[in-house]
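Notes from hallway chat w/ T.B., transcribed later so I don't forget. T.B. wanted the structure written out for a chain they're using in a teaching module, and asked if we could keep both sequence and structure tokens in one place. Agreed to drop them here.
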Amino acid sequence: MNQPEQTNPLLREAELTPFDEIRAEHVAPALNVLLAEAEAALERAVGPNVPADHDTLALLLDVPVERLRRAWAHVNHLQAVADSPEMRAAHAEAQPRVVAFYTRLGADHRLYAKYKAIAASPAAEALNPAQRKALADALRAFVMGGAELQGAARERHAALQHRLAALSLEFGNRTLDATDAFQRVVDEARLEGVPDDVRQAAREAAAAAGQAGCLLTLQMPCYLPVMQFAQDRALREELFRAYNTRASELGPAEFDNTANIAEQLALRAEEAALLGHPSYAHLALVPKMARSPAEVLSFVRELAARARPSAERELAEMREFAAAELGLHDLQPWDRYFVAEKLKQARYAFSSQALKQYFTEPAVLQGLFGLIETLFDVAIRQEDAPVWHESVRYFRVWRGSQPVAAFYLDPYARAGKQGGAWMDDSRGRWRRPEGRTQLPVAHLVCNFAAPVGDQPALLTHSELVTLFHEFGHGLHHMLTQVDELAVSGISGVEGDAIELPSQFMENFCWEWEVLQRLTRHVDTGEPLPRELFERMRAARNFQKGLFLLRQCEYALFDMRVHSEPRAAAQVLAVCNEVNAEVQPEAAPEFARYPCTFGHLFNGGYGAGYYGYAWAEVLSADAFGAFEEAGIFDPATGRRFREQILEVGGSRTALESFRAFRGREPRLDALLRHQGLA
């Protein structure tokens, strides 16, 4: 190892990534080395002296390309969870160079020819099923990457990739900045009704900023409890307006994503046309289960039609309750969280805040890990490792005496961290050409409220569901037994099936046997009482119709703006049309949710948001097997692990589902879980 590789943590080959050492100044020098290695490897691989052979290309090309991918994944990750002006600048400077390389790699007609030669050779018959699936996926990716384009079309396609990557990065940065920019210090008297732990966190935030009172932000651990519990209606309205106009033309110009969205949509449509598709939606569906935008639109509209009657009843109930019990005769959008919480308390005799006292983070993690260990025959142990923030923890996953994977858990919201929750692939499982097996590593990121005072962090039940969801993604990535990198874990899984394991895991959050093991009251240490659980369970489908309509609205908007020629120039008009079609009540005229819709414009879900509902058909039906056999049934857990989690993307999701369930998927379980049966 030469001197730069010894001193630059992004170049160091180590089992544990030195996250605590990585700084912005390491990014450019590391990429200089890694890009040069990858470029040289590509030129050697496409040369006449290199045969069209799977193992030869893997050793020559895949090793340096994977090294580059891994280092760039670390930079992307740190820019999302530990943003700083320096890291943002280093990331922005490096991104065009990385995009340029991957664009060339994916469109290289010489490399494409070698892959086609492998597929046509007798040696292809000797490839194992995972290798054959990876080869088929690679050939499709070459076509989608522009490898069959010529001349000006080829150059334009490459230019589109550069610009779209830059726009995606800008979209995410503006969303983060617009969220972090809002801070409001209020007198604590205005927080009447807000839970004590939220008020204490707001007091501490104000004190840290050198101010008296309570500091409010738009980060979810602050925003949502204020919307649910604050008696001060004017305060709720102020935060609601601020949240729903973030990164739009109604706020500071430097954060406005309006033009960014229009340009992304126009460029995506142009990309699709270059590749011979009628719209970007048609292009995006090529590697998915759904066959056409029309099929997706029909699916979403049917789901919306089933949910609409329930949603209309739920909205009418809220209006009646607000008027009769709360004196609110003109229910406004900023009242909905507040009224819904009061109505739930009245109907089911419990509050989200009372329930939250039982979901202490230590008990939740102990129960979650115990469930995973029982069902999937693994052990999870915390270990020391370099991390990017003091609140981050590192765990290794074992089967018997052998490690099989590892993950980092970053649970709490903070400034400089993107909102939401996600699982990142830090490193994939791979039987490397040199002979050793590389084990997978995942980042599991959430945005829960941090511990306050000497109490542990408390999760709402909704946050519990989020945690289980992300762990489902993590299990899919970590428990794979596939040795071919391109189809191990979540790699190679159809985009509209990727949510199957994550949504499957959510179901355990509603099971008594599970909650008994992961609840412990913050003051008394008692587990969740059965009668409180039954009330919570009865409320499972509370306002589910309104929730489903919102999901259908997002999915319909997504598919329409990516399939209609006029949409790029009329995003707000399409947004309003979809709202009018789906919702029983019009959205406020100032609402601008597209301007922070990161799934679509900074998260890889463009023309794919419908996948949450699509995959839930599979996940609900898969969980039905556990309902039939027993929630902790090890045989069913082993079958799910072997037929879904371990095979990753080495075969189609439908094949994996059939292997687990023994039949085709059915809609019944989803409708039952959603209260629509």
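Follow-up for T.B.: The chain is about 55% helix and 5% strand. Might be a good example for the class.
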